[in-house]
Design goal:
With about 210 residues, the protein is mainly α. The chain has one domain: CDP-alcohol phosphotransferase transmembrane (TM) domain (Four Helix Bundle (Hemerythrin (Met), subunit A), Up-down Bundle). It is built from seven helices and no strands. Helix 1 packs across helix 3, helix 3 runs antiparallel to helix 6 and helix 6 packs antiparallel against helix 7.
Length: about 210
Protein backbone atom coordinates (compact mmCIF):
# COMPACT_ATOMS: atom_id res chain seq x y z
CA UNK A 1 0.00 0.00 0.00
CA UNK A 2 2.73 2.49 0.95
CA UNK A 3 4.99 1.15 -1.80
CA UNK A 4 2.32 1.91 -4.36
CA UNK A 5 1.19 5.30 -3.05
CA UNK A 6 4.35 7.09 -2.00
CA UNK A 7 6.98 5.47 -4.20
CA UNK A 8 7.05 8.44 -6.58
CA UNK A 9 7.33 10.97 -3.75
CA UNK A 10 10.02 8.96 -2.00
CA UNK A 11 11.99 8.62 -5.24
CA UNK A 12 11.90 12.40 -5.68
CA UNK A 13 13.21 12.89 -2.14
CA UNK A 14 16.02 10.40 -2.72
CA UNK A 15 17.19 11.90 -6.02
CA UNK A 16 19.55 14.51 -4.52
CA UNK A 17 20.86 11.97 -1.98
CA UNK A 18 21.45 9.42 -4.73
CA UNK A 19 23.18 12.03 -6.89
CA UNK A 20 25.47 13.03 -4.02
CA UNK A 21 26.43 9.42 -3.31
CA UNK A 22 26.91 8.69 -7.01
CA UNK A 23 29.52 11.48 -7.18
CA UNK A 24 31.59 9.59 -4.60
CA UNK A 25 31.91 6.71 -7.04
CA UNK A 26 30.26 4.13 -4.79
CA UNK A 27 28.55 1.32 -6.67
CA UNK A 28 24.84 0.59 -6.01
CA UNK A 29 25.58 -3.10 -5.42
CA UNK A 30 28.00 -2.15 -2.63
CA UNK A 31 25.21 -0.20 -0.92
CA UNK A 32 22.91 -3.22 -1.29
CA UNK A 33 25.45 -5.49 0.39
CA UNK A 34 26.12 -2.88 3.10
CA UNK A 35 22.43 -2.93 3.94
CA UNK A 36 22.57 -6.71 4.28
CA UNK A 37 25.58 -6.43 6.60
CA UNK A 38 23.68 -3.94 8.76
CA UNK A 39 20.70 -6.27 8.91
CA UNK A 40 22.99 -9.12 9.92
CA UNK A 41 24.18 -6.89 12.77
CA UNK A 42 20.56 -6.34 13.77
CA UNK A 43 20.06 -10.11 13.78
CA UNK A 44 22.98 -10.55 16.20
CA UNK A 45 21.48 -7.91 18.47
CA UNK A 46 18.09 -9.65 18.37
CA UNK A 47 19.63 -12.95 19.44
CA UNK A 48 21.36 -11.05 22.24
CA UNK A 49 17.93 -9.74 23.33
CA UNK A 50 18.97 -6.15 22.66
CA UNK A 51 15.85 -5.29 20.74
CA UNK A 52 16.05 -1.49 20.96
CA UNK A 53 19.56 -1.47 19.50
CA UNK A 54 18.44 -4.01 16.88
CA UNK A 55 15.60 -1.68 15.87
CA UNK A 56 18.01 1.23 15.40
CA UNK A 57 20.39 -0.83 13.25
CA UNK A 58 17.47 -2.30 11.27
CA UNK A 59 16.31 1.26 10.56
CA UNK A 60 19.73 2.08 9.10
CA UNK A 61 19.57 -1.11 7.02
CA UNK A 62 16.13 -0.12 5.69
CA UNK A 63 17.41 3.33 4.73
CA UNK A 64 20.34 1.72 2.94
CA UNK A 65 17.87 -0.42 1.03
CA UNK A 66 16.30 2.73 -0.44
CA UNK A 67 19.61 4.29 -1.43
CA UNK A 68 20.94 1.66 -3.83
CA UNK A 69 18.18 2.32 -6.35
CA UNK A 70 18.62 6.09 -6.05
CA UNK A 71 22.36 5.79 -6.72
CA UNK A 72 21.76 3.44 -9.65
CA UNK A 73 19.37 5.95 -11.24
CA UNK A 74 21.78 8.84 -10.65
CA UNK A 75 24.58 6.84 -12.32
CA UNK A 76 22.31 5.75 -15.19
CA UNK A 77 23.23 2.20 -14.21
CA UNK A 78 19.87 0.43 -14.15
CA UNK A 79 20.80 -3.22 -14.67
CA UNK A 80 18.83 -6.41 -14.39
CA UNK A 81 21.48 -7.97 -12.13
CA UNK A 82 21.23 -5.06 -9.71
CA UNK A 83 17.48 -5.56 -9.46
CA UNK A 84 17.96 -9.30 -8.96
CA UNK A 85 20.58 -8.76 -6.27
CA UNK A 86 18.34 -6.25 -4.50
CA UNK A 87 15.40 -8.67 -4.47
CA UNK A 88 17.56 -11.54 -3.21
CA UNK A 89 19.03 -9.36 -0.45
CA UNK A 90 15.52 -8.23 0.53
CA UNK A 91 14.49 -11.84 1.14
CA UNK A 92 17.64 -12.57 3.15
CA UNK A 93 17.11 -9.39 5.17
CA UNK A 94 13.54 -10.42 5.92
CA UNK A 95 14.78 -13.80 7.14
CA UNK A 96 17.26 -11.98 9.37
CA UNK A 97 14.31 -10.49 11.20
CA UNK A 98 12.29 -13.64 11.72
CA UNK A 99 14.90 -16.38 12.24
CA UNK A 100 16.71 -14.55 15.08
CA UNK A 101 13.38 -13.88 16.77
CA UNK A 102 12.47 -17.56 16.50
CA UNK A 103 15.85 -18.44 18.02
CA UNK A 104 15.48 -15.88 20.82
CA UNK A 105 12.01 -17.01 21.87
CA UNK A 106 12.26 -20.70 21.06
CA UNK A 107 15.83 -21.67 21.95
CA UNK A 108 17.47 -19.08 24.17
CA UNK A 109 14.28 -18.00 25.96
CA UNK A 110 15.75 -15.46 28.39
CA UNK A 111 13.96 -14.84 31.67
CA UNK A 112 12.18 -11.81 30.22
CA UNK A 113 10.67 -14.05 27.48
CA UNK A 114 9.73 -16.99 29.70
CA UNK A 115 6.60 -18.87 28.64
CA UNK A 116 6.58 -17.38 25.15
CA UNK A 117 7.73 -20.35 23.07
CA UNK A 118 4.73 -19.80 20.81
CA UNK A 119 6.31 -16.58 19.53
CA UNK A 120 9.01 -18.65 17.83
CA UNK A 121 6.40 -20.55 15.84
CA UNK A 122 4.60 -17.29 15.08
CA UNK A 123 7.83 -15.80 13.73
CA UNK A 124 8.21 -18.73 11.32
CA UNK A 125 4.59 -18.49 10.16
CA UNK A 126 5.03 -14.77 9.57
CA UNK A 127 8.22 -15.34 7.60
CA UNK A 128 6.56 -17.86 5.30
CA UNK A 129 3.53 -15.60 4.81
CA UNK A 130 5.69 -12.58 3.99
CA UNK A 131 7.75 -14.63 1.53
CA UNK A 132 4.57 -15.77 -0.19
CA UNK A 133 3.46 -12.14 -0.55
CA UNK A 134 6.72 -11.29 -2.32
CA UNK A 135 6.69 -14.49 -4.38
CA UNK A 136 3.21 -13.89 -5.78
CA UNK A 137 4.23 -10.42 -6.95
CA UNK A 138 7.46 -11.60 -8.54
CA UNK A 139 5.78 -14.54 -10.27
CA UNK A 140 2.81 -12.47 -11.44
CA UNK A 141 5.01 -9.75 -12.91
CA UNK A 142 7.12 -12.43 -14.57
CA UNK A 143 3.94 -13.63 -16.27
CA UNK A 144 3.09 -10.11 -17.41
CA UNK A 145 0.48 -9.16 -14.79
CA UNK A 146 0.40 -6.10 -12.57
CA UNK A 147 0.59 -6.89 -8.86
CA UNK A 148 1.13 -3.62 -6.98
CA UNK A 149 -1.60 -4.16 -4.45
CA UNK A 150 -2.16 -5.36 -0.90
CA UNK A 151 -2.36 -3.91 2.59
CA UNK A 152 1.04 -5.24 3.71
CA UNK A 153 3.68 -4.63 1.07
CA UNK A 154 7.35 -4.68 2.06
CA UNK A 155 7.38 -1.08 3.30
CA UNK A 156 4.62 -1.83 5.79
CA UNK A 157 6.29 -5.05 6.89
CA UNK A 158 9.59 -3.29 7.53
CA UNK A 159 7.96 -0.47 9.47
CA UNK A 160 5.99 -2.88 11.63
CA UNK A 161 9.01 -5.05 12.42
CA UNK A 162 11.18 -2.06 13.30
CA UNK A 163 8.44 -0.63 15.53
CA UNK A 164 8.08 -4.01 17.22
CA UNK A 165 11.79 -4.05 18.01
CA UNK A 166 12.01 -0.43 19.13
CA UNK A 167 8.98 -0.66 21.42
CA UNK A 168 9.57 -4.26 22.56
CA UNK A 169 6.21 -5.34 21.14
CA UNK A 170 7.41 -8.29 19.11
CA UNK A 171 4.60 -10.81 19.88
CA UNK A 172 1.88 -8.24 19.11
CA UNK A 173 3.57 -7.01 15.95
CA UNK A 174 4.20 -10.54 14.68
CA UNK A 175 0.54 -11.42 15.23
CA UNK A 176 -0.59 -8.36 13.27
CA UNK A 177 1.99 -8.88 10.56
CA UNK A 178 1.11 -12.55 10.09
CA UNK A 179 -2.57 -11.69 9.66
CA UNK A 180 -1.87 -8.82 7.27
CA UNK A 181 0.55 -10.89 5.21
CA UNK A 182 -1.95 -13.72 4.79
CA UNK A 183 -4.63 -11.22 3.77
CA UNK A 184 -2.22 -9.59 1.30
CA UNK A 185 -1.35 -12.98 -0.19
CA UNK A 186 -4.98 -13.66 -1.03
CA UNK A 187 -5.50 -10.06 -2.17
CA UNK A 188 -2.73 -10.45 -4.70
CA UNK A 189 -3.95 -13.81 -5.93
CA UNK A 190 -7.44 -12.37 -6.43
CA UNK A 191 -6.09 -9.24 -8.13
CA UNK A 192 -3.99 -11.22 -10.60
CA UNK A 193 -6.86 -13.61 -11.26
CA UNK A 194 -9.06 -10.64 -12.21
CA UNK A 195 -6.54 -9.73 -14.92
CA UNK A 196 -6.33 -13.20 -16.40
CA UNK A 197 -8.27 -13.65 -19.65
CA UNK A 198 -11.22 -16.05 -19.49
CA UNK A 199 -10.53 -19.52 -20.81
CA UNK A 200 -11.30 -20.02 -24.47
CA UNK A 201 -14.60 -21.75 -25.10
CA UNK A 202 -14.50 -24.38 -27.79
CA UNK A 203 -17.80 -24.81 -29.57
CA UNK A 204 -19.20 -28.23 -30.25
CA UNK A 205 -19.02 -27.48 -33.98
CA UNK A 206 -15.27 -26.81 -33.87
CA UNK A 207 -14.67 -30.14 -32.13
CA UNK A 208 -16.23 -32.13 -34.94
Amino acid sequence: MLDSRIRGLWDDLMKPVGAALARTGIHPDVITVMGLVLQAGAAVLIVSDRLLAAGVVATLAALSDTLDGAVAKARGDIRSFGALLDSAVDRISDALFFLPLAWLYGVIEPATRSGQHWVAALAMVTMVASFLVSYVKARAEGLGYECNTGIAERAERLILMIVGLLLNLVPLVLSVLAALSIITFFQRLTYVRSQAPPPAVTSSRSRR
